[in-house]
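Work Package 4 report. The design task specified in the project plan requires that, given a folded chain encoded as structure tokens, an amino acid be chosen for each position. We show below one input record used in the internal validation round.
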């Protein structure tokens, strides 16, 4: 049988070890907790504090909700007001959500509406062409694929959802940026244009000429300029204001699709984007513009 004093000593040692481990865990978790309570996180929590029941909230109430100092709330609120994400009522000095958030929300809603409205017609277009169908939207000076349908054929191409592609050498990008404001086109052409294949056109003047051709024809062609062995055709989609909010593309392997074959998709592609555009509120006469 063990000596009682020895057992007590072991228990004390075990307790001390457990305490040391707990302290180590606490210290390790501290940085993560600090990160979660960073100024960015607190700013997001501040914005989420508003609701239909509380449209306007004062500094003291926000500080209480967020469990932070009033000085912190005031500093964040001033910054958010400067960026248009918050507004301050001059009479009550309380804060409310700013119109800047409405603008951001509109971008998200536009993307969601475009995908939802386009989906059934993209399936019809794939059935008609038998090729990969892409739906892209502008993002800065690139395009992002927000929806894609792969070709049912054995030999086809894969379009990665969420992938970003350059605008100067892709059919989807050209179909969108050919109708972009001049300042956007200037920004696109200001930086060095990446040569992705031996066919990629990187001369800004020539890209401008291509954009002019797209505006005249109503669709854009891509001839192995973004990816070797890939050809594509794309046409723009417009919203209720007439602005180009995206483009639909048909793409496939150049071994199967000659330039003549890819251009033969133009009538069905233009019908598709005209239908989608009308679903987004665009008026009649889209094909003629």
């Amino acid at each position: 049988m063990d000596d009682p004093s020895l057992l007590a000593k072991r228990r004390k040692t075990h307790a001390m070890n457990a305490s040391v481990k707990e302290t180590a865990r606490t210290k390790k978790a501290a940085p993560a907790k600090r990160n979660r309570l960073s100024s960015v996180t607190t700013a997001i929590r501040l914005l989420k504090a508003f609701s239909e029941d509380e449209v306007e909230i004062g500094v003291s109430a926000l500080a209480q909700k967020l469990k932070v100092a009033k000085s912190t709330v005031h500093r964040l609120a001033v910054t958010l007001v400067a960026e248009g994400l918050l507004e301050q009522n001059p009479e009550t000095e309380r804060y409310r959500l700013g119109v800047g958030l409405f603008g951001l929300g509109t971008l998200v809603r536009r993307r969601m509406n475009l995908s939802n409205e386009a989906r059934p017609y993209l399936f019809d277009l794939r059935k008609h062409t038998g090729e990969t169908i892409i739906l892209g939207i502008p993002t800065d000076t690139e395009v992002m694929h927000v929806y894609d349908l792969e070709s049912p054929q054995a030999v086809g191409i894969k379009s990665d959802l969420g992938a970003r592609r350059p605008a100067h050498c892709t059919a989807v990008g050209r179909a969108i940026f050919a109708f972009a404001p001049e300042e956007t086109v200037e920004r696109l052409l200001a930086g060095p244009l990446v040569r992705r294949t031996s066919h990629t056109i990187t001369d800004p003047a020539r890209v401008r000429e291509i954009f002019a051709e797209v505006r005249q024809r109503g669709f854009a062609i891509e001839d192995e300029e973004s990816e070797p062995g890939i050809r594509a055709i794309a046409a723009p989609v417009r919203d209720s204001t007439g602005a180009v909010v995206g483009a639909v593309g048909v793409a496939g392997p150049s071994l199967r699709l000659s330039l003549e074959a890819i251009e033969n998709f133009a009538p069905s592609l233009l019908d598709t984007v005209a239908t989608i555009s009308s679903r987004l509120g665009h008026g009649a006469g889209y094909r003629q513009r």
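The mean pLDDT is 85. Validation will be extended to a larger panel in the next phase.
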